[in-house]
Design brief:
The complex is a heterodimer of chains A (513) and B (175). With 513 residues, chain A is an alpha+beta fold. Helix content of chain A is 27%, strand content 24%. Chain B has helices at 4-32, 36-40, 75-85, and strands spanning 43-54, 64-73, 98-110, 116-127, 134-148, 151-161. A 6-stranded mixed sheet of chain B has the order 2-1-6-5-4-3. Classes of the chains: A alpha+beta (513), B alpha+beta (175).
């Protein structure tokens, strides 16, 4: 479908109130207005109030292993340079010269000691420090270079090699944002000795889908798998337990809601499955890297699918292949929905393998990932084709005028059979069935809280831990102490820099995890 | 002054190019007619079919990933894709897309082992459904063809797309 013309001019800020009220009423019934999935007004609110302050995934540390390695990354529309600086620290620098604003980074990735602005030649170290101003003694004699380093994303932090940045000056720390959901991230990213690494470069492609549809899908849509991906099962590319009808199989299926994030798993109780990874990989999985409970969950798991609020998703998929005559394997994929407009999303998709796996095994894992996900993936092709249709109708006059709502009531007491797993060893609310959409409701609730909370924080937001109200004045309210320095000095849009602190100190991810 | 030998080798090159063009045009026609099973018969069992990701680098204009691909296929995985497209539930190609492959700039060179290096440009129109929208994919291809009587089979195809970030919902066609 062709992109819809922008309706920005038609939707003035005052329209937000009506729209938000409508969304709120809808959410209360486990529904959501269809127009939410293709609305310029919603998109603008999301840019400002959601992507403008929430923790957004930037990249994995293994993508920039050497000093000077960099890659251009985005937070919604904003360009950043994801770089490992000369000190070995990971930086997320705003890709805009402090002089006239030109972009410095001309490639998708590379290795460099400096970034030089092509316009007037201002030159920055890969730490962000301004080190060169042409004709400085004449032209900018009194310029304090230490105050003109590249802006950093206001807050940068990492977990298990996953680097996130926030454009908000304050609010929850990354640790608070991820909460106990790290129990599930650990299973995906910490199990093998030597850790996980990205294979190759991420797939990127632009689809005419609203980003929230992808987020919905990974927030527990086990219901679609058996139907939308029926061809996978039919062709013998995926096992019945992985791609079969939800709730109908022999597997132990669980949906978990944990601190704002979700994961779904299919397991075979008592068996050693390990996502059907080959022995070489399973041998790298070390019980010492996780808790006994996490290890057992990984051992029994056939697959994990999950969503980290707001726009990151993962799948650790087993019993899948590129060719029914070849062995199955598992693979770990990570994906990010980058909104480019109300009806346009750039999907980013990374493939992971244990760093210590043999080259042949990494190649095999990548091939199975690529055959199923990414733009040519046998799974992914079918999803996007369907998702586009949602975005298309969401822009309809009928949907707007007749309050067309989408139903997310599966898994509520009124709607369906619900059972919880009280014995589950991990954190979160655990459904003993993979037929529920309450996880998506929780996603929408959080999303709505962000959208209904102005960036100056006049309303209280749960996500902000009460800190939003004081964002501008004492941004450290709820941030961890280590984060304060970077909040103040690297403040997005802030012009002040604390004396004596070099820009390289800004927004540095904390060591370790 | 051209000798007879020059003329003969020029003629050989011309005839080779003619045969390669005829083969590539027929191949494109098969795919555009969605005769994908017939297309598979043009591929060798040991076929290598790859389309690496283009990576934008500052000083290099034509740079491709060595480990990330849109396609990294062998015969078995291509056959699985074809079977999937012909199955009932392959939503990406329901309804089947309309494609037109424009194959141009063909260059052909015989290699010492008797196989042929065939290079070509590809412009692929892609449209689907009752919509006025469409998209194009553009790229160059480097094939290794094995002579098979007057025609060929495909031993290797590397596709180098021109897109840094494809603006297409899915790549559900062969290039």
């Amino acid at each position: 479908m062709p992109p819809t013309e922008s309706k920005a001019t038609a939707q003035q800020p005052d329209d937000h109130a009506d729209l938000l009220a409508e969304i709120e009423a809808s959410l209360g019934e486990g529904k959501l207005p269809l127009q939410t999935f293709n609305s310029e007004a919603v998109h603008q609110l999301e840019l400002d109030r959601l992507f403008g302050r929430e923790w957004i995934f930037v990249g994995h540390e293994s993508e920039i292993p050497e000093e000077g390695d960099y890659a251009r990354r985005y937070i919604a529309g904003d360009p950043f340079i994801f770089v490992r600086d000369m000190n070995g620290d990971v930086q997320v620098l705003f890709d805009s010269c402090r002089h006239r604003g030109a972009k410095l980074c001309r490639a998708e990735q590379g290795n460099t000691s400096h970034f030089r602005c092509p316009y007037h030649g201002w030159t920055y170290k890969n730490t962000g420090d301004l080190v060169g101003v042409p004709q400085k003694e004449v032209a900018f004699k009194n310029l304090d270079q230490s105050e003109h380093g590249l802006h950093s994303a206001p807050r940068v932090d990492s977990y298990a090699g996953l680097v996130f940045a926030s454009l908000g000056d304050s609010g929850e720390s990354l640790e608070e944002h991820l909460g106990e959901f790290t129990w599930y991230l650990d299973i995906q990213f910490k199990l093998p000795d030597g850790g996980m690494e990205v294979i190759g470069e991420p797939h990127r492609w632009v689809v005419e889908t609203n980003w929230k549809t992808g987020a919905d899908n990974f927030a527990g849509d086990s219901y679609h798998t058996g139907f939308a991906h029926h061809s996978i099962k039919q062709l013998g590319l995926g096992g019945d337990d992985t791609v079969g009808i939800a709730g109908a199989g022999e597997t132990k299926d669980r949906h978990v809601h944990c601190d704002g994030h979700t994961t779904s798993t299919r397991m075979v109780e008592g068996e050693e499955v390990f996502m059907t990874y080959p022995d070489e990989i399973v041998d790298l999985f070390n019980p010492d890297n996780v808790t006994a409970d996490q290890y057992r969950a990984a051992k029994e798991a056939l697959s994990f699918t999950g969503s980290v609020f707001p726009n990151l998703a993962f799948l650790n998929f087993g019993d899948i292949t590129d060719d029914p005559n070849k062995d199955v394997t598992g693979f770990l994929g990570l994906r990010k929905w980058r909104p480019l407009g109300p009806n346009k999303t750039e999907i980013w998709s990374w493939a992971f393998a244990p760093k210590r796996a043999s080259e042949a095994t990494k190649k095999r894992i990548y091939k199975v990932y690529m055959s199923n996900f990414g733009p040519s993936g046998n799974f992914e092709q079918d999803d996007v084709s369907i998702w586009n249709g949602i975005t298309d109708v969401a822009d309809s006059t009928f949907a707007r005028h007749h309050d067309v709502e989408l139903n997310y009531q599966m898994g509520t007491e009124e709607m369906s059979e619900v059972a919880y797993d009280e014995e589950w060893p991990g954190p979160g609310t655990v459904y003993a069935i993979n037929l529920e959409e309450v996880g998506m409701q929780k996603f929408h609730d959080q999303w709505f809280e962000h959208l209904s909370t102005p960036r100056d924080g006049t309303a209280m937001s749960r996500e902000c831990g009460g800190g939003c109200g004081s964002a501008k004045t004492d941004g450290c309210g709820s941030a961890k102490t280590d984060g304060c320095g970077s909040v103040k000095t690297g403040g997005y849009g802030s012009t002040k820099t604390d004396d004596g602190e070099s820009p390289s100190e800004r927004g540095r991810p904390e060591d370790g995890e | 002054m051209a000798t007879n030998t020059d003329r003969e080798s020029e003629l050989d090159r011309f005839l080779l190019k003619q045969r390669v063009e005829r083969f590539l045009y027929e191949e494109a026609a098969l795919l555009d007619r969605r005769e994908q099973t017939e297309w598979l018969a043009l591929l060798d069992e040991d076929v290598e079919y790859k389309a690496p990701l283009r990576i934008t680098r500052e000083h290099v204009n034509d740079n491709f990933s060595r480990s990330a691909y849109y396609f990294d296929e062998d015969y078995g995985s291509l056959e699985a894709r074809v079977q999937r497209f012909e199955s009932e539930y392959a939503w990406s190609e329901r309804p089947p897309s309309r494609t037109r492959r424009f194959v141009t700039n063909v260059r052909a060179t015989e290699r010492d082992d008797g196989t042929v290096d065939a290079r070509s440009y590809l412009l692929l129109y892609y449209g689907q459904g009752d919509s006025s929208s469409y998209t194009f994919l553009a790229g160059r291809r480097e094939d290794v063809l094995r002579p098979n009587g007057e025609t060929f089979t495909i031993a290797k195809r590397h596709v180098y797309l021109d897109h840094a970030v494809p603006k297409i919902d899915k790549i559900s066609v062969f290039l």
